């Protein structure tokens, strides 16, 4: 999708978020989301087949909607030390997850099994599902950064009931295509603490 106005809008959101330090935490989240969408859409424009549905449109609307509604409707004090510590940890989680997401996209194009070896370099050397890992950490960090713990609980339910079945289905598909994936699966951690 090569649309200059789309990229301009994403860039504007990103710049608005990083220029407003401390005042509008929700704007920081919108800003980081615009960065992820920008990077993802640029890779899709290069005709890279991700071979998976990380988040469907309905999922995205539900997750974004619940997070934004909770952050706007339930006000919380950000003055306590504990809250500031959680916010700092969440900011580190956001930074790390965005970096991992962008870094992993560079290796996705080669991560196919038809006629090729399974990708074992880059983040795939340490985790089987680094994109899922990055997005799960990203969303958990978003909820923590905004102190939206109801949304965090809903997201953990979503991961368990929607994301894990998608990962299992993808792994079954990979095993049916290549026996090498079975060995890779045994040797390498999934990258998600709650998933083997």
From TrEMBL:
Cellular component, GO annotation: endoplasmic reticulum membrane
Membrane topology reported for the UniProt record: Multi-pass membrane protein
Family to which this protein belongs: Belongs to the class VI-like SAM-binding methyltransferase superfamily. Isoprenylcysteine carboxyl methyltransferase family.
Species the sequence originates in: Encephalitozoon cuniculi (strain GB-M1) (Microsporidian parasite)
Name of this chain's protein: Protein-S-isoprenylcysteine O-methyltransferase
Transferase found in the keyword field: yes
A GO biological-process term: methylation
InterPro entries documented for this protein: ICMT_MeTrfase
Transmembrane portions of the chain: 6-39, 85-109, 130-159
